[in-house]
Amino acid sequence: MKFLLAQINPVVGDLEGNAKKILNIASKASSISADFLLTPELSLWGYPANDLLFKKNLINNQYQILDQLALDINKKYGNLSISIGIAEIINDSFFPNLYNSIALVEGGEWKIIARKIILPTYEVFDEKRYFRSEEKVSVLIKQIKNKTWRLGFTICEDLWVNKDIEGRGIHRKNPIIDLKKKKVDILVNLSASPYTLKKLELRSKVSSVAAQYLQVPLIYVNQIGANDNLIFDGNSFILDKNGSKIKQLKSFSEDLSSWEIEQTKPEKNEFENSEMSSIFDALVLGVKDYAKKCGFKTALVGLSGGIDSALVSAIATAALGSDNVYCVSMPSKWSSSHSKSDAKDLARRLKISFKSIPIENLMTSFEESFIKTISFEMAEITNQNIQSR
User: Which of 81, 191, 226, 290 shows the smallest number of beta carbons within 10 Å?
Assistant: First the structure.
């Protein structure tokens, strides 16, 4: 069986745009004769969709888009199978009335093959506001080239069940233990796991424990991109049945990578990042996606010559390009010659637009107003703070 892992950057709520992205990637999967294209958690919506999930018109539109996508894929790419993350309606009178689900698209149709069991409600997550928890684990039985495969599907948090690693205590349900009884041939985890320091290390540990416990290979497909206050780093990977890494996808970048289940030899990892470079890459992606997804193209930065504005300018330049960053220095008598020259030199090195607009007259006017009105003469630190504001 040949998989194509699609580490994509969906736009939250852009169902049509995300479906088009998946359709384009299906072309790549077909061209390499992949049997199964895997996309991340809620890939049709983007994660987190939050209160957009309460909009009935979007939920209904999702099904129409999924119907059309199934037809288009079958017409263009034949028997290709694709997993797509959706919000599945539960037809009863209880609330919430959605599952966080995985749809299998193949043969011009689609069906639900997995639902999320463990719904996180800590830190940045509030999934129980939108979704209901599934009770049973999911196993997909597929016939590929005269061989029957049993694929166990988990969604993001369903894998985070080792309290010794993730440190949040024991869940009432443990999908990994339940899958042991199902005798799966491979474990698939489709995720939208946000970036934090050392998060890749934690993901690798919980995944390695699961692979070793089940004694099967594990495919981990993660979303990338920045949505609101969350940054998703990608870093998808594949482990062998002993929990050792076979393949690692890129960090903070969309990436496609194929893998055949018989392939057990580890690939050379070309995407090792230091902790500091990962932090920088996360900040760059955060700015880049915020601008792109909100329709902004340029940035204006007050460049004082201090370290804060210097770092912001460097991040903005990396995210938007030097032609789209405009910096302004606003010196007064409280600005040292060193800070003024530093600002100018940084702009030259980054090849960004730089203007100096002196504000000494404005500062003098402030000082005179304070003395005249309340007989208060501003001290040095007060002046410095007023200048920055």
Answer: 290
